[in-house]
Specification:
This protein is mainly alpha-helical. 69% of the residues lie in helices and 0% in strands. It contains 5 helices and no strands. The radius of gyration is 16 Å and the shape is elongated. The model has no long low-confidence stretch (mean pLDDT 91).
C-alpha cells in the first residue's frame, strides 16, 4: 500500500494511526469486515455462502482469522449475523 501511494510504511502507519485511530492491521480488518457486512446487507445471495467463501471474498486466508476479526469488529460471529439477517428478512416478508 505504501508503495502504491509513493510513501514509506512508517509514514503511512502514522497517518492511519492519527486519522483513523487504528494501527494498520486493525484498520485493514475494519475495512474488510465493513465490506463483507455491506455485501451481506445489500445482496441476499451472500447470506447463503459458506463462511469460507465470505472470508476469501474479503481477503482473509483462513475462515478462523475472518471469524475472529468479524467478532472483534461487530461483537458477534458472522454466522450469528447472517442468521439474524435471514430472520429479519423473513419477518419483513410476513409483516
Amino acid at each position: 500500500m505504501a508503495n502504491s501511494l509513493n510513501t514509506n510504511t512508517k509514514y503511512l502507519s502514522e497517518v492511519i494511526k492519527v486519522y483513523r485511530e487504528h494501527n494498520f492491521t486493525n484498520y485493514i480488518n475494519e475495512l474488510r469486515i465493513n465490506y463483507i457486512v455491506k455485501k451481506l446487507y445489500e445482496n441476499p445471495i451472500y447470506r447463503e455462502y459458506k463462511i469460507t467463501y465470505l472470508a476469501e471474498e474479503c481477503g482473509y486466508a483462513t475462515p478462523r482469522v475472518f471469524v475472529n476479526a468479524f467478532k472483534k469488529e461487530m461483537g458477534f460471529t458472522p454466522f450469528y449475523f447472517v442468521e439474524q439477517l435471514k430472520i429479519s428478512a423473513h419477518q419483513s416478508l410476513y409483516s
